[in-house]
What does this fold into?
Amino acid sequence: MAGDIYKKPVMFAIVSTAVILIGTAVTMFIPMMTAQMHPRIEALKPFTPLQLAGRDIYQREGCNNCHTQTVRPLRTEVMRYGEYSKAGEFAYDRPFLWGSKRTGPDLARIGKKYPDAWHYRHFENPRKFFQESNMPAYGWLKENNLDPGDVKGHMDVLGFSYSEEEISLLQERNELDALVAYVQVIGTSIPRRRAVRTQGKTTTAEIKNPLAGNQAAIIAGRDLFEENCSDCHGEDAEGDIGPSLIDDVFLYVEGDLADDDYFELINNGTEEGHVEEGRTMKGGMPAFVGDMSREEMWSVISYIRYLKNKQEGKNRDG
Amino acid sequence: MSAYQYDHQTIKGFIISSVFWGVVGIIIGLWISIQMWQPSWNVAPYFTFGRLRVVHTNILGFGFGVGAIFGLNYYISMRLTKRPLLFPKLARFHLYLFNTAIALAAVSLFAGMNQSLEYAELEWPLDIGIVVLWIIFAVNLFGTIIKRKEEQMYISLWYIIATVIAVAVLYIVNNLSVPAGLFKSYSLFAGINSANVQWWYGHNVIGFIFSTPILAMFYYFLPKSTGLPIYSHRLSIISLWSLVFAYLWTGAHHLVYTPLPDWIQTLAIVFTIFLIAPSWGSVVNGFYTVAPDWSKMRTNYLTKFFIFAITFYGLQTVQGPTQGLRVVSQLIHYTDWVPGHVHMGTMGWVTMTVCASIYYVIPRIYKTEIYSVKVANSHFYLVLIGQLIFSVSMWITGIQQGALWKAVTPEGTLKYTFMETLVKNYPFWQMRTVGGLIFAAGMLFFVYNIAMTIRSGNAISGPASKGVR
It folds into this structure.
């Protein structure tokens, strides 16, 4: 009698265990035994001691409670964050840190998006860059030194290779250094996706700025500059974290940049090693392809040219 | 009535501990709800959002929730087996160990010892403690059931047995890790595999802590407090087996559109939709149990707690599967919709059922009447309104957020920067704090009512109060 099971607790327990284990086996245990659950892409490197220490701090501070680390293969998501996440990118993540809530933005492609200096300043005071940000400040991590012995032990547990020199160098680094080092490596095993030059915004490629010298565009450009650019390039584009935009050096080479190259630079950002018009980039500037329209980018360029002219006028008069 | 004796001291201890941890967890919940719109409420290093959020979930899930589960299910098991616990001293030790573990859990999470696995944040030494807690519970429970004086096992016992087994399997597997010192470990699983194991755990621990043991309470205390027999045993049998079977397939619906293999996601979505059926089996059973006499909603103050609780369970178990669908997931996943969903379950279904069960148990073990039905009614309306404000405001802002993230200009660029989408949450996050305050006020009425009941009952203390009722 099947009904007897409700009188036999041991039998009931055995049958429930079996029932529970069916779905467990099919969706979890069996896949785990197959290669498809353990992919690793070639370019992925294990964490260095400093990066691992940073990752431990990321876990300790519960960063994953507000930031995800996986870009979904959705059009707007790729536009906002970059290339969608691949299965083989996470092979050294024990455990994964994808998170489940985006109170802050996704971080799967944060690595190398900004220069280190940006992160230090942002951790120190997130509201410096984003006035209405609700992120806690993490400048206090600077006060804590790393314990090289601990980090070494952790590297050993994970079986990552390291040199004694890397370990001893940790002595001079603090927790904020480590966190920045980790953030800068997230998602960098996948090449950055560069937008097509004109990225479908125009039917015919523009070579000259259609809004050059346009008063309304300069005024609109000023607002856009303050919102998007001044935190790194300075209030009057005189340079800060990022280089000055009113001198005559672009991408570390003397000489002006043509309008379409300027556009391309804002559109796609800079990427270490990428060569544009014979100038080699060092990286550090994010792409604005998803954030600004074509017209807005041209307006920003008009405004920067205006600032530059003003500066050159000053230089002449002075 | 036979002259057997129940050990009420341990049950009182668990109930009072559970309520205590509930208050602590709610205060922290209010605090982090303010941090969401007022970052100056972060006090580094111990009281930043990243650390407090896990203290909130662990204290309420494992302190309030599991404390109530241990205590009330001990109570239920003794009644249904018609005998005292087989190992009363072990149960007492269980209580002490439980409170020690929760206190250490809170301290360790404040200190940042965190495995970063949702609902399994505790580091490995505490994991061992938690497993020991459940083993003690299992030994006492199975021992008591095997030596029972009543041949037939009632529905609640099935749900409790299934709970113990599932929690053991889930908790042990997901927490497997290699220790790297006393306070740090690295998961045995890596990458997408670790994601799959975690959400197999994460979803099911909700199933087997916030569904099955709470259903055990519901199936016992609803008929007890209304005096109406459960509508259908056959329906409860079908519900139990299909629930326990289907639940374990569904974890990957938390990983829709991630790099996890598509077939695991799809399978999870299919079983998630199927889960509506067994969940609603219990909903229907609850409604039809009270159907012969709906006037109980007016005349018996506990009935409305149970009926509203099971209604929220019903809404929760339709909303959840809907969220699993790819088309819905892409809009609301990662937004504030999700905490809205979770809190309908925890503040609506779980808290209402647990509170009503405690209202039933406390006067009986203290041999008195409830201090005030009026206070209980105020408690009911406050937690109801508070929870609705919380959930509804989070659903609205969640949909808004998802839509803003996806908005594009005619030119094909994103219409809003992330910061522009974030600031639109602020009024809703403030509204959530208001909802939380109302809910917390309701819970203070509850605590007051229970405290006064205990005081007014002529406290028959000592471990051997006679079980007459």
